[in-house]
């Protein structure tokens, strides 16, 4: 993989295009990394049993697992947890929306005849009565984001104090040409250029970083503006941009979350 990475990646793409499912095995062990997930067009992520070594009762272990399942689902990958041996592990993995598990909790290796007999009589595991009572915070956040993106296809997180931002673009927004991360002042310049000429001054003034910080200092909780933005198809459409000021428990920086919504034409 290290010596002939390009050739192997091309081979993986070719067999996937031929209809085979591709899985990354033992994710979390020494030989697997986030680079695999980034570079390989895989369908399944198999979580190494070493990440369950503390029986999912250690806080750090739970946070790591929640994060893995979160990015896997956002990448539309199915997940499999390896080496599941206890009910505690199974219960926690259910809260993370793990698709499948394998391990001694269900059965140990057995002769082929016994395995085939077991398949004939096996019944699916009963689901929890109410998943909302069991889900982890990360799983709840994923559900919340799904609901938010239905209305706001573009979400921007901004550190106004440090003049930085990163963007969570979902789909079906007016324009897809915005940079995904970088300097906030430059983002506003870019956004202003995509507005209707009659709306540019209002947009640039309203979302000027110094103006936003001043509004926050005055006690404002949100800033809202409707403009006409040029879409990728060359048509101007109404967009409502709302900045919500939020407080982080980790820093004194001024943080804003921007929600952008496409509005229907009058």
Task: Describe the protein's architecture and organization.
- The protein is of the alpha/beta class.
- The protein has two domains: 5-146, TIM Barrel (Alpha-Beta Barrel); 152-262, Beta-Lactamase, CATH 3.30.450.20.
- It is built from nine helices and ten strands.
- It has helices at residues 5-17, 34-39, 59-74, 87-95, 112-121, 137-151, 184-193, 200-206, 209-217, and strands at residues 23-27, 44-47, 78-81, 100-101, 154-159, 164-169, 181-183, 222-230, 236-246, 255-262.
- A six-stranded antiparallel β-sheet has the order 7-6-5-10-9-8. Strands 1-2-3-4 form a four-stranded parallel β-sheet, covered by helices on one side.
- A hairpin with an 8-residue loop joins strand 9 and strand 10 (255-262).
- Helix 3 (59-74) runs parallel beside helix 6.
- It is elongated, with a radius of gyration of 24 Å.
- The model has no long low-confidence stretch (mean pLDDT 85).
């Amino acid at each position: 993989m290290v010596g002939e990475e390009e050739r192997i990646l091309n081979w993986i793409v070719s067999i996937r295009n031929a209809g085979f499912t591709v899985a990354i095995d033992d994710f979390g062990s020494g030989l697997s990394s986030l680079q695999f997930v980034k570079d390989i067009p895989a369908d399944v992520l198999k979580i190494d049993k070493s990440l369950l070594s503390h029986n999912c009762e250690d806080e750090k272990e739970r946070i790591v697992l929640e994060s893995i399942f979160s990015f896997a689902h956002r990448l539309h990958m199915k997940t499999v947890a390896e080496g599941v041996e206890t009910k505690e592990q199974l219960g926690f993995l259910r809260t993370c929306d793990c698709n499948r598990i394998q391990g001694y909790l269900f059965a140990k290796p057995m002769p082929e005849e016994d395995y085939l007999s077991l398949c004939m009589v096996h019944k699916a595991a009963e689901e929890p009565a109410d998943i909302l009572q069991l889900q982890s915070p990360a799983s709840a956040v994923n559900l919340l984001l799904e609901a938010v993106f239905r209305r706001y296809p573009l979400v921007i997180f901004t550190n106004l104090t440090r003049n930085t931002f990163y963007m969570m673009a979902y789909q079906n927004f007016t324009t897809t040409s915005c940079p995904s991360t970088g300097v906030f002042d430059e983002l506003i310049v870019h956004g202003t250029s995509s507005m209707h000429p009659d709306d540019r001054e209002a947009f640039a003034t309203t979302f000027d970083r110094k103006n936003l910080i001043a509004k926050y200092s005055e006690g404002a909780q949100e800033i809202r503006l409707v403009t006409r933005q040029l879409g990728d198809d060359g048509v101007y459409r109404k967009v409502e941009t709302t900045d919500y000021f939020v407080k982080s428990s980790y820093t004194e920086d001024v943080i804003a979350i921007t929600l952008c919504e496409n509005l229907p034409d009058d």
